[in-house]
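note to self — DONT lose this again. spent like an hour looking for the file last time. sequence + predicted structure for the chain T wanted, 379 res
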Amino acid sequence: MVVCKKDYLTANGVFATCHKRKREFLNGMNNIENFRSIAKRTGYDKMPAQFQTCPSLAKKLDQYMKETGFNFTPTIVDVPDLVPKRASEETFLKYFNYSFKKGTYIDEYGTAHEPGSEAAFHMTKMHFPLGNFDSVEQIQTYPFPDFVGVDDTAQREAVKNAHAKDMVAVGNMQCTIWERSWYMRGMENLMADMMMEDPIATALLDKITEISTLRAQSFVKNGVDMLFLGDDIGMQHTIMMSEQFYCEWIQPRLAKVINAARAINPNIIVFYHSCGFVTPMIPHLIDAGIDVLNPVQPECMNFKEIHDKFGDKLSFSGTIGTQTTMPFGTPQEVKREVWKNLEIAGDKGGLFVCPTHLLEPEVPVENVIAYIEACKEFK
């Protein structure tokens, strides 16, 4: 068994396959076949364990593995995104009329990420470079990252290497349209633009859709098995915008990205992430072309109800609460929650059971281990 601690601690969304007991009815599939079969609800051989950890918890897990010899085999890996031509930080700083704390970094879209106090751990405060824009012309002349014609060799080689190791290759491009746009404009500003039907909203959303389409096409052209798209459109107990608003402004643009990917590979698996309560949006997401909905937060939605209503059309990822079970449950409660949800999904699959979000510092290492063991022990 190959141990890959680095991937486990640093990759975004690492899967670890636990081999002790296999499901008998589809015994012998490789990892990529198993992944596709779960997503397509045609049975499965083994249940992969997937989770992400914050840096402080990653250190604790690393120490645990060193002390116990805990082993696992990763079966999924993120393929690197294209590296765009981008403006310098000095260029982006001109869009802010104030200075930032030491340690602030500016991403390729110009959004500034400013660190907080020690108590904030890895969290940062975002600052929006388009926050004061008042014309379409400013959008049109802004230095967006340029992905056209950039070298895709690293992407192509990463897919080739992943497949040589029987690993699922993922094109991870969450914050696909809505979130990336408001990260630049500010949520309140962009909501107001959309409400007022301001051309600024159209220009910005169209530009981000154009960029996301190009990135998705590159991932799929270079052979990834899965595209991981997403924009948070839900809150704890309600949707972030009306269905009508979503279907007017966001859903057609998401469909455009997915359709462009499927024009290259009709069989690409599309995951879609949105935190929070999104039940009313699910039919619109299905219409846009997604295959798997993540993360189905149990604090916001009832998985059995969602599965009963949509499980013949849609697969799921998540369902293990990171606001409840993972930080505050016992190891046995973690295992029971995993097994309960896998039983709901049934032998056909249709559920990649995993924590619903990043595992934060308060999650006990014992609960992470219990989750992995639950995937291994399910029968």
